[in-house]
Amino acid sequence: MTDNFQSWMDGTRQRVEGALRSMLDSYRGQVPELLAESMAYSLLAGGKRLRPLLVVAAAEAFGASGRERVVTDAAVAIEMIHTYSLIHDDLPAMDNDDFRRGMPTSHRKFGEAAAILAGDGLLTEAFAVVSGGDEPSRLRLCALFARHAGARGMVGGQVDDTVSEREDTEAFLDQVNRRKTGDLLALSCAAGACAAGANDEVIGSMQRIGWLMGHAFQQWDDVLDVEGDPALMGKAAGNDAQQHKLTYPRLIGVEATRQSARNKIQEARALIAPWLPAAAHLDALAGAMIDRKH
Amino acid sequence: MTDNFQSWMDGTRQRVEGALRSMLDSYRGQVPELLAESMAYSLLAGGKRLRPLLVVAAAEAFGASGRERVVTDAAVAIEMIHTYSLIHDDLPAMDNDDFRRGMPTSHRKFGEAAAILAGDGLLTEAFAVVSGGDEPSRLRLCALFARHAGARGMVGGQVDDTVSEREDTEAFLDQVNRRKTGDLLALSCAAGACAAGANDEVIGSMQRIGWLMGHAFQQWDDVLDVEGDPALMGKAAGNDAQQHKLTYPRLIGVEATRQSARNKIQEARALIAPWLPAAAHLDALAGAMIDRKH
């Protein structure tokens, strides 16, 4: 990772977090205090901001100049969608997690009803952010967000992961990961390109790139859970096996999982190549999905 | 209620339900079966379809000819939002209701995780329906939906109603009702006008009409709970008092509540009057909010 890439990431994160704070400030007097507080609590709890970084990097590939507001709005909205999904995933009826990133989860802090509603609020307000302007690309953005975050995308993946009858096959695991993790990364890349004015064919190619990244990212996470260094990851290894989770290492072995992830990133980078050097940050983000220690 | 109005309502309900079924059919193969089933279960559970009727009636007032698809999409989407809100309201962490319209609630039928996700799916897919076309009015529609259904609207009202510290004042009750019931009716009227191509000033006036209707509707419900005929309502009276609910009759008395509702409908109908006769169905729907037996 070059210093330039690192400083681009730091700067982009700062810009996105500034935009998140401005948006939360604008709720003052408009939104019940408790709701504003619970939305802010989860939205500002840190995290890598991977999805907003992808939005901005994808937009850069197609020249985002003059379209910064739409791009930033798309980046903010996708972080709101991601955050709502974490809040609902953590609920007692779902994963029943008490902590996330070392802090009490939303329902532990505010109660279950407030957590459900904080998620509902973030999801709905994400569409307010996306549709909050006159640029025609915003309509296409709304459609992309709904397609990838909804029943045909992330919510569908969550149902397959937690509620549907599980099949112990690679095809089923592929489908869960494609929807649950992949769809939001596909949305990130597609939304960045869309906000920058790319056409439908390009947007489709960016979706494919995002799905590949998501798949590789999940596979690498599975690898780390088997042989990662707990000190570097900030959590114990071996959780997946203990919980009898359906993972790639369990189905195809660690080495084949590692290789599959590398192949997917190779394919993604081949799709990115025609847009270099403008797509350099997107290319670097693709590379960072694998060969990582945490 | 004239025969014509009744047959218009029947026909419009039929059309909207047909569109809901087509949409659900389109999920086949795209959405996990269990999720499609749980979304369909609540969406097709009956109900008065008041919000879709308002959308269509408001659109008629401004000439919906040639814009039928956008109008129907707005009507379908608002019913999806309304249905998601009922599913989440019924959850154990919220109102903890086992039955709705004589059928087990979503979490009783499918489990709590599936019910949360059915709601999330309906909410997100509502935006897919609204943004599913090229007409420029759809972008404004997305913004209206997010404004009224989100943290500044319905979700905010739900937080005030179930989580925030309750104040026993008319101003607080007004605020809860305005957001919790009023915002979706305001959205219905505004969305119909927007889909029919009305300008911002008209849309603003339609929002006002919807809020007035919502307020009157809630007040009349409160009145019925005190002195309605259980046989006609299909449920026992006196529930609100038993549950120590904050209601208008408790704060200002039954007669003043009835009068307040009538005044609001009078104001709404005065705002509708300039658009008669095209707005005849909207006017009739406003009248039907009060002086009803169930």
Task: Based on the model shown, name its key terms.
mainly alpha, homodimer, Farnesyl Diphosphate Synthase, 294 residues
What does this structure look like?
The structure is a homodimer of 294-residue chains. Chain A has 294 residues and is an all-alpha fold. Chain A has a single domain (3-288), classed as Farnesyl Diphosphate Synthase (Orthogonal Bundle), CATH 1.10.600. Chain A is 72% helix and 1% strand. The first copy, chain A, has 15 helices and 2 strands. Chain A has helices at residues 3-26, 33-43, 50-61, 68-90, 106-110, 112-130, 137-149, 154-162, 170-195, 200-227, 230-233, 239-242, 248-252, 254-272, 280-288; strands spanning 99-100, 103-104. In chain A, β1 (99-100) and β2 (103-104) form a beta hairpin. At the A-B interface, α2, α6, α7 and α8 of A face α2, α6, α7 and α8 of B.
SSE layout and pairing:
Two copies of one chain form a homodimer.
Chain A lengths: L2 H24 L6 H11 L6 H12 L6 H23 L8 E2 L2 E2 L1 H5 L1 H19 L6 H13 L4 H9 L7 H26 L4 H28 L2 H4 L5 H4 L5 H5 L1 H19 L7 H9 L6
Antiparallel strand pairs in A: 1-2
Helix pairs in contact in A: 1-4, 2-6, 3-4, 3-9, 3-15, 4-6, 4-7, 4-9, 7-9, 8-9, 9-10, 10-14, 14-15
